[in-house]
Design a protein that fits this description.
Elements (H helix, E strand, L loop, with lengths): L8 H9 L4 H9 L2 H15 L15 H21 L7 H10 L3 H4 L7 H14 L2 H12 L5 E4 L15 E5 L4 E5 L7 E2 L10 E10 L2 E11 L12 E5 L12 E5 L2 E4 L8 E3 L5 E3 L8 H31 L18 H36 L6 H28 L12 H13 L4 H20 L24 H28 L4 H7 L1 H27 L5 H21 L1 H7 L4 H18 L3 H6 L5 H4 L10 H9 L11 H11 L4
Parallel strand pairs: 1-5, 2-5
Antiparallel strand pairs: 2-3, 3-9, 4-8, 5-6, 7-8, 10-11
Helix pairs in contact: 2-3, 5-7, 7-8, 7-9, 9-10, 9-11, 9-12, 10-11, 10-16, 10-17, 10-19, 11-12, 11-13, 11-16, 13-16, 14-15, 14-16, 14-17, 14-18, 16-17, 17-19
Length: about 675
């Protein structure tokens, strides 16, 4: 059994090495001393509630039991969170706080069956319902009187929204929309919480009225009876089945057989259908996709959080685990003393800090743009869309690769579900695809980049994020400082974009159609989008860290700057081929970068545990035998093993039924 109160000696020594104030860093990551206090208070209250934490690990439950247990816990958890809400917070802030609240992961090792209600259903009502609809529907949804999901993706189409097949045909005789799924591929497929949890959802469907097609529009649809929860007539709904992860999120399918809804159940903030069937656009049609932008903004922060959990588990384990004997006669060293281990893990820490910083900047940008939209201006929406697309794509790509590195850095024990690294990987892997698949999102950003390149060529002013494309001056010499690397990545991005645009123009001149030329250059376009995103993240991480750390103590400023520098140098070495193509970097410069990178690993090494301790994850939130604060890894592994139902009896029935007859040749 795990000893209470005793801390692993190696882990304790690591904490004594730390030369900055961990609590100061925790306050910085939370945003303030007040926010740290409020977060801890909320976590303590939630975790003290009986029945929220599983006595039997959920991995030993059946698929059906996992879901039912998750619903039970959701009801308890979200009642507590609602009681603790700030009544003065805006609707979108209250929604965001639920969506980002990390104590939820203490309750659900996988995911929760209310996530889409708070993460997409509510934001869609906020952003796309008119005032009359909000007064009724949003109030009910905010009070959890109804639970909803967001149904866009279909069995046959996902990111290509114009290809969706579900139809909503207006019938002026009854003033109703008739929702229909004309094919198997038109069934909605993947919406979270839809299978058996929610009774309403926002459905994206192709609108037809007065014999005309009026594009994709959002409709509020009741899928189950509010009293009995039975599917309504004309509704076919269920769960899509087991997946790599998110098995308690209850992803569902939804089909319509000429199902009718009232006319005023179309969300009418941006478009309306009058009683006689006249279609009228009343707002910016681009705002229909505001929910997806919101979720992509939140995903960047979620990746920082999941990567922080993986890094905490792996670094604490690396401080405890001892392996090999490079020097005869001496004790086995901690595996974190190996430079190769530091190379695997420290970049995960730096990346978590980088994406956390970038996510805060992105949220501020999102809030600003949404404020402008409310005032009738949508000029900056394309820029927000472009940067949120590539940041969502690249942050999930990095988090996926680095979470897997953290898992493999823990050896065989990292493969145990009790380490919580496989489940964390599953959550990140899902994020890589949902709300826009990686390549599709990168090509969305590429369209904005090509447009910006053309604008720059015509002497037009570019948006602040893309303004670096205006500077066509080549670098005269290599500068290996943080500032120099940021500038070099901007030159790489501009160079890749210039090369890609030249390729597109060449293909067009050869007689290709614009579409074929785009497809022919698509590999280059994705690479240009990634280069642009890298340049934005590096610049943002550096700029925002400088701005936000001015009032911190000198030791903390120093270690945070070391993280920024290591992050920049790491990516310079990873992308050295690009730097050789587009900057004057030399072989000697590359060697200097490698030497500096190794120096930075050594400088960060004494503070590694302090840097992850500052995340301030409670053991219940980490849910890991390898990453607990006390470092009692081996005791926890054994304790979890003994929870296996197979260990409840010394001899399993299968011995008498199968093994014994088999071994005696009598099977």
């Amino acid at each position: 059994m795990v000893s209470k109160g005793k801390v692993n000696e190696d882990l304790q020594r690591e904490r004594q090495k730390c030369d900055f104030n961990v609590e100061e860093l925790t306050n910085y990551l939370d945003g303030s001393v007040k926010e740290t206090h409020e977060r801890r208070e909320l976590e303590a209250k939630v975790l003290s509630v009986k029945g929220l934490l599983d006595e039997v690990p959920e991995e030993y439950l059946s698929h059906k039991e996992k879901y039912e247990n998750a619903v039970r816990k959701s009801v308890i958890l979200f009642k507590i969170l609602k009681d603790m809400e700030d009544p003065n917070a805006s609707e979108i802030e209250r929604t965001r706080s639920k969506f980002k609240n990390r104590v939820v992961s203490a309750v659900f090792k996988d995911a929760n069956p209310f996530s889409l209600h708070y993460g997409m259903f509510l934001p869609t009502l906020i952003g796309q319902a008119d005032e009359k609809q909000k007064a009724y529907w949003l109030k009910r949804a905010m009070n959890d009187e109804i639970l909803g999901s967001y149904a866009q993706t279909e069995l046959g189409h996902g990111t290509f929204v114009r290809g969706l097949e579900t139809t909503a045909t207006y019938d002026p005789k009854t003033e109703e929309f008739v929702l229909h799924s004309p094919t198997l591929t038109s069934y909605k497929w993947w919406p979270g919480n839809l299978g058996h949890t929610v009774n309403y959802c926002v459905v994206m469907a192709q609108l037809y009225t007065q014999g005309k097609h009026c594009g994709m529009q959002p409709f509020l649809v009741q899928v189950r009876d509010e009293e009995t929860h039975m599917p309504l007539p004309g509704i076919k709904v269920g769960e899509i089945g087991a997946k790599l992860g998110y098995n308690t999120v209850n992803n569902g399918f939804l089909g319509f057989d000429n199902h009718r809804i009232p006319r005023d159940w179309m969300l009418m903030k941006n478009a309306q259908v009058s009683k006689d069937g006249t279609f009228k656009v009343t707002g910016d049609s681009k705002l229909t996709y505001g929910t997806m932008v919101f979720v992509r903004v939140v995903v960047v922060n979620a990746m920082a959080n999941l990567l922080a959990k993986a890094a905490t588990i792996a670094i604490r384990y690396a401080a405890i685990r001892r392996q090999s004997q490079p020097k005869p006669g001496e004790p086995e060293p901690q595996i974190m003393d190996y430079l190769t281990q530091q190379h695997k893990l420290f970049i995960a820490v730096a990346s978590s800090y980088a994406y956390s910083t970038t996510a805060q900047w992105l949220w501020d940008l999102y809030s600003k743009v949404i404020g402008e939209i409310e005032a009738g201006k949508s000029d900056h929406l394309p820029e927000l869309h472009s940067i949120s697309c590539c940041l969502k794509a690249v942050s999930t790509m990095d988090a996926l690769a680095m979470t897997e590195k953290c898992r493999t850095a823990c050896g065989g024990h990292g493969y145990m579900l009790s380490s919580n690294l496989p489940q964390t990987y599953g959550l990140v892997a899902a994020a890589y695809t949902y709300e826009g698949e990686f390549t599709v999102l990168m090509l969305q950003t590429a369209r904005s980049l090509v447009k910006a390149w053309d604008q720059a060529a015509k002497g037009q002013k570019l948006s602040p994020i893309m303004s670096y494309l205006d500077d066509k001056t080549p670098l005269q010499k290599w500068d290996g400082s943080i500032e120099g690397i940021v500038q070099a990545f901007q030159k790489v991005a501009a160079g890749k974009l210039a090369s890609t645009v030249a390729s597109i123009n060449k293909f067009r001149k050869s007689g290709m159609s614009p579409e074929d030329a785009w497809n022919r250059a698509s590999i280059q376009l994705v690479a240009a989008s990634e280069a642009h995103c890298r340049a934005v993240v590096l610049a943002t991480y550096k700029r925002e860290t400088d701005r936000r750390t001015a009032s911190l103590s000198q030791p903390l400023r120093r270690v945070l700057r070391q993280l920024v520098e290591m992050y920049c140098v790491y990516w310079a070495l990873e992308k050295v081929g690009d730097l050789l193509l587009y900057t004057p970097i030399s072989q000697t410069d590359v060697r200097d970068l490698q030497n500096r990178y190794e120096e930075l690993l050594e400088l960060i090494r004494p503070n590694a545990v302090g840097l992850v301790d500052a995340y301030d994850f409670k053991d219940e939130i980490l849910n890991s035998t390898l990453g607990a604060h006390d470092g009692r890894v081996y005791e926890r592994l054994m304790e979890e093993a003994l929870k296996s139902p197979l260990n409840k009896e010394p001899v399993n029935d299968s011995f008498h039924k199968y093994l014994k007859p088999f071994m005696r040749g009598k099977l």
